[in-house]
Design a protein that fits this description.
The chain is α/β, with parallel strands linked by helices. Helix content is about 30%, strand content about 20%. The protein contains 5 helices and 7 strands. The strands form 2 sheets. It has a 5-stranded mixed beta sheet with strand order 5-4-3-6-7, with helices on one face. The longest helix is centred in the first third of the chain and has 24 residues. The N and C termini lie far apart (about 90 Å).
Length: about 180
C-alpha cells in the first residue's frame, strides 16, 4: 500500500471531522436525548416586609459612594427608576413635590437609578429633582432585587421606617395623590 499524498490526507481529516461533529450534534439533540441541566443560577434573596434594609452603598451621579445607612433615623422612600422608563418619568414630578414638602423630620426620598451615569445626568438636566440620586447597574443582584424587587420591573418603591426596617414595597407607578398616604410608615 502506497502512502497517500498530504492533500488527500487533509481532505480525509476534514471530512472525518465534519462527520464527527454532525454525528455528535445528532446524538445529543435527538428526541429523548438526555440534556445536562443548566448550571445553577445564583439567587440573590430580596428583602421583604419587616426585614432590615440590606447594606447598600452606591455611587451618586458624580461618582461619590453613598451608604444608604446614612439615611437612618427617619423614614426613607426609595424609588427605583430609569431614564428610559416612561412610568418612572411620569411619577418623578410628584415624588419631587412630595420630597420638597417634607419637614426636617419627615420622610426622606432617594432615587435609585438603574441606568448609566450619562443617561441620568442628561435626564436630570431636563427634569431636575431636589432629592439625592444613586446609580446601579441593572442585573440579577442589583440593589432593586436586594430590596425585594423579584420581578425586576420598574418603577419599584420601598418604604423603610426610621429603625431601618422595610415596611412597604410597591411595584409600579404611584397614582395621582397616592404617595402621601403610601409613604406614611
Amino acid at each position: 500500500m502506497s502512502p497517500r499524498p498530504p492533500r488527500q490526507l487533509a481532505v480525509v481529516a476534514v471530512l472525518a471531522a465534519v462527520l464527527g461533529v454532525a454525528a455528535g450534534a445528532w446524538f445529543f439533540n435527538r428526541p429523548g436525548a438526555a440534556t445536562p441541566p443548566p448550571p445553577p443560577r445564583a439567587v440573590t434573596p430580596g428583602a421583604g416586609i419587616g426585614d432590615a434594609m440590606p447594606a447598600i452603598t452606591l455611587p451618586d451621579v458624580s461618582g461619590t459612594p453613598v451608604d444608604l445607612a446614612r439615611f437612618g433615623g427617619r423614614p426613607l422612600l426609595i424609588n427605583v427608576w430609569a431614564s428610559w422608563c416612561g412610568p418612572c418619568v411620569e411619577e418623578m414630578p410628584a415624588l419631587a413635590a412630595f420630597a420638597a414638602a417634607q419637614p426636617a423630620d419627615g420622610v426622606q426620598v432617594l432615587g435609585l437609578a438603574l441606568d448609566t451615569p450619562e443617561g441620568v445626568r442628561d435626564f436630570l438636566t431636563q427634569v431636575p429633582v431636589g432629592y439625592p440620586i444613586v446609580l446601579d447597574t441593572p442585573g440579577p443582584a442589583d440593589a432593586s432585587v436586594r430590596l425585594g424587587n423579584a420581578q425586576g420591573l420598574l418603577p419599584y418603591s420601598v418604604l423603610v421606617d426610621a429603625r431601618g426596617r422595610i415596611v412597604k414595597q410597591k411595584l409600579g407607578p404611584f397614582q395621582a395623590g397616592e404617595i402621601e398616604a403610601w409613604a406614611t410608615p
